[in-house]
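Sequence in, structure out. Go.
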Amino acid sequence: MRIGKERLKKVLEIIGDLFPDAACELNYDTPFQLLVAVILSAQATDKSVNQVTPALWAAYPRIEDLAQADVAQVEETIRHIGLYKNKAKNIVKTAQIVLEKFAGQVPDNHKDLESLPGVGRKTANVVLAEIYKVPALAVDTHVSRIAKRLNISAPDADVLEIEQDLMKKIPKRDWIVTHHRLIFFGRYHCLAKKPKCEICPVQAYCHYYKETIKK
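Output:
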């Protein structure tokens, strides 16, 4: 039986006390820079993205600059992150499309965002929440892991199912802040390989602890 709304509310309050200032850790100055940073963050850490973007922004400060960039040079600039060849191609093409189709403005809806190369639902959700304050729950590896360990979602649930489970059980007004806090909880406390179960304040509510650690 999945965790109920009231029990989940208590868990999220505890996580909120742990990480009250949780926020996006990608560095950016403009909406388009955030879009690019989130594209680059696929299968890469925010830390690694933040290490390559200063040089990227310096070389291509405007959308127009990136749209006209040589893909090989962009590859060289971001080559220290995973899948850099494909990502270089995607961000250059995305810059071109945003200029030509959207007059240089980052789209403010799922359909248009997901029409861009390298942009899936998770990336769209991050951009909509961060830039346009549209309530959204982006499911990355951290959120997915926490949802399953806390028994919010089934062990075999996919990202869309997890997103639906979270949206059903969490008030819409709390989606953005909950997304950030769950990421911080997964990134800094409920780690993939060595979760801090023994000192975890949500231990009493945790399905993973009861089924895996306590045994």
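Check: DSSP finds twelve helices and no strands in the chain. The longest helix spans residues 84-102.
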